[in-house]
Amino acid sequence: MTGPGRSLEHALAEAIRQLDSDPQAACAGAREILRAAPDHPHAILVEGQALRRMGEPRAAMPMLAELVRRQPNILGAIWEFAQAASEAGETRQAISALQDLTRKQPAVASGWFLLAGELRKVGRAEEAWRADLSGVHASSRDPGLLKAAMAMNESRFDEGEAILKTRLERVPDDPPACRLLGEINWRRGDMTNALTWVERAVHLAPGFDLARDFLIRLLLQSNRLPEALEHVEVLVGSPMRSPGHDLLKASVLVRLGEQERAQKIYEELLAVKPDHSQVWQNLGHVLKTQGKQTEAIHAYRQAATHRPTMGEAWWSLANLKTVKLGAEDIAAMEQALASLQPDDPNIQEDLFHLHFSLGKAFEDARDYPASFRHYEQGNRLRRALVLHDAEGFSAECKATADTFTAPFLAGMGAGGCPAPDPVFIVGLPRSGSTLVEQILSSHSRVEGTMELPEMMIIAGRLQSRVDEGEFPDFQAMVSSLTPMDRSRLGEEYIERTRVHRQTDKPHFIDKMPNNWQHVGLIRLILPNAKIIDARRHPLSCCFSGWKQHFARGQTFTYDLTDIGRYYGDYVRLMAAYDAAQPGAVHRVIYEDMVKNTEHEIRRLLDHLDLPFEQACLEFYNNDRAVRTASSEQVRQPIFTAGIDHWTNYARWLGPLEDVLGPVLEAYPEVPAFGNEPRH
Question: How many angstroms separate the Cα of 236 from the Cα of each of 57, 116, 221, 555, 652?
Fold first, then answer.
């Protein structure tokens, strides 16, 4: 086509092309068209768009308003008017336009998100929240976002990231794209960028419930508990009420040690839906932690009653240690096992939990062959689902031992945070560490908290600097820490753990057992902290750990050879620490504590420079919350019956004895480690 019409189309296309790069030229081009065709709707739209981009939204508003009046079906004109009104501070006009736009074009997410922002400006919070939710719903059908999500779910992270970043160049304030980009980073293991992107999504769309839910879980993983609580308090106020929001809030409260508040939430949920097995189980957990054993047993049995195949509910009962599962329980669990399809990937957790529970039930019945058979099956199923690199872990322990030598520590000189507050209790799980914690937390100057992840988080962050190539090896990284760096890291630990302290007692306990790997780092960044090593007979400790299913972590415990090798690595590294700084770590031998309790408690308190208190001897009267597997045992006076319980299974423990070797033979002393093969 030729002639005036073709010339106008060409001029209009050129003006549109210039909108982003040169809005003044675009405005001039549109006005040139309007001189030839005064009522040309698209030229009017381009002029309004150009004026808004030039920072003159008020000048754009009249012409865009007139265009919308005359051509109500040009949705782009409504969108431009709404944006101009928003930028000009004419919020009510923007809201009116956006409500019109979202009625006519509900599938365009950006209209909903802009409407939500305008509604918040005038205090219409619930309407804004619902607008955000409508925007998220509209985004769920967006082809570009669906393509990025598919790439992410198929682990094509680079492709998904490229799609989303291209989109964000075009639409910088797109909440769903930001949330997806956050999840891609999380799946890659980049927690810092994951948090950045998801926080941005929530900032852009405060009513984006799924993004806030994800953000709370990321904050929990990062142990940023006060922030998680702030966000979950917002989430439970969503107009789209969900029991899942209440459950998440209860989880945050549990992590903060506020068991009673969590209990109240669970009880309120059960009042509405009394057959909710998962809530019954969660209620059982908080009751157990508070020492309310009878009520906990009732809650766990309710969970198993409402879902008989719920393996974790059965294991929660078995894991109380002081509860014996009888013949009726065994029959119910065997029936549950028979009803499950072993090759169904969705029920693997139920299967291994049931096997662990039956192992405990047959142990109580003194049927040790049947007990071992179920423990073995449970461990085999669990081991297939976890990653544990025994060889790599041994190499890490050796690198740590080779680093924290006496000359190295002397050469590092003074430094670190001088706070004397922390008392670290380290060792293997099931080594008696909870008993030591209960004894110490019964002292008037010591506060018990829980197994705190902060030191492991700090250590992991430092190790990542090696993994990412900033340093050639672990020793080079540690050597680079200046006295100021070490002070800053120690202060970070003190600050991050403050949320767990509920009293003004001068000392607090961190009972994360795995911190034995970080004793050298603790000595560098918290030189005045006290360190207690809780140690138990190798066969007793390792077998007890092997027959214990842990809710998370402790991946080395699901194979007798793995756990024996881990115990050996632990003994070797602790021996290296002892050689580097004799007396820095106080060792508590569990069997000695059980047989000569007062003497061992006095030795322990002397190491901590604390006076003896009778309450430490009567630790079982302490009603503090205890979350570990020994929660019920430490509420009773010390008993000796369990010390040699492993002997009932001795005929099956040959692989464990073999891998322990000289560590077992020398116990409670430590063998002289030379250059013999490590395993």
Answer: 38, 19, 20, 34, 51
Is residue 149 included in any domain, yes or no? no
CB 222 within 8 A of CB 457: yes
Q: Is the pLDDT of residue 548 over 80?
A: yes
At what angle are helices 243-255 and 277-289 packed, to 10 degrees?
Answer: 20
CA geometry: angle 81, 87, 89, nearest 5 deg? 100
Tokens 């529970």 belong to 357
Q: 149: which 2 tokens?
A: 């999500």
Q: What backbone torsions phi and psi does residue 215 show, to the nearest 5 degrees?
A: -60, -40
Please check whether residue 593 is in contact with residue 436, taking contact to mean a CB–CB distance below 8 angstroms.
yes
Counting DSSP H helices and E strands in the chain, the numbers are 36, 5
Asked if 109 and 168 sit in the same domain, the reply is no
Place of tokens 């050996």: 568
| Token pair 């923007």: residue | 94
For residues 428 and 502, state if they share a domain: yes
Question: How many domains does the chain divide into?
Answer: 3
What amino acid is encoded at 342 in this protein? P
For residue 286, what is the domain's CATH number? Answer: 1.25.40.10
Amino acid at site 567: Y
Residues 162 and 125 in one domain: no
The whole-angstrom separation of Cα 172 and Cα 166 is: 10
Q: Does 354 fall in a domain?
A: no
For residue 509, the cross-strand partners are 423, 448
Could you tell me if 473 and 521 lie in one domain?
A: yes
477 with 614, same domain?
Answer: yes
In this predicted structure, what is the pLDDT of residue 622? 67
- Which residue, of 284, 311, 344, is where some domain finishes? 344
Q: Could you read off the pLDDT of 397-453 as tens digits, one per residue?
A: 999 999 999 999 999 999 999 999 999 999 999 999 989 999 999 999 999 988 899
Buried b (16+ CB within 10 A) or exposed e, 342-364: eeeeebbbbbbbbbbbbbbbbbb
Which run of H or of E encompasses 109?
A: helix 109-121
Two structure tokens written together for 531: 């360190």
Do 27 and 115 share a domain, yes or no?
yes
Q: Is residue 148 scored above 90 in pLDDT? A: yes
Instruction: Tell me, yes or no, whether 148 lies in a domain.
Output: no
Paired with 530 in beta bridges are 423
Q: Are 514 and 553 in contact (CB under 8 A)?
A: yes
Per DSSP, 37 falls in state S
* Strand-by-strand arrangement of the 507-510 sheet: 446-450, 507-510, 422-427, 530-535, 585-589
What is the value of pTM for the model shown?
0.81
Range of the domain at 458: 393-666
State phi, psi for 13 to the nearest 5 degrees. -60, -40
Question: What digits encode the pLDDT tens for the residues 602-613?
Answer: 999 999 999 999
Residue 679 pLDDT greater than 70, yes or no: no
Tokens of 388: 């544990």
92, 107, 139 - which closes a domain: 139
Alpha-carbon distance 553 to 27, whole Å?
62
Looking up tokens 């079906």 gives: 73
In this structure, is residue 605 part of a structural domain? yes
Residue type present at position 264: K
User: Do 125 and 226 reside in the same domain of the chain?
Assistant: no
- The whole-number pLDDT of residue 403 equals 95
Beta bridge pairs of residue 342: none
CA pair distance 551, 316, nearest whole angstrom:
10
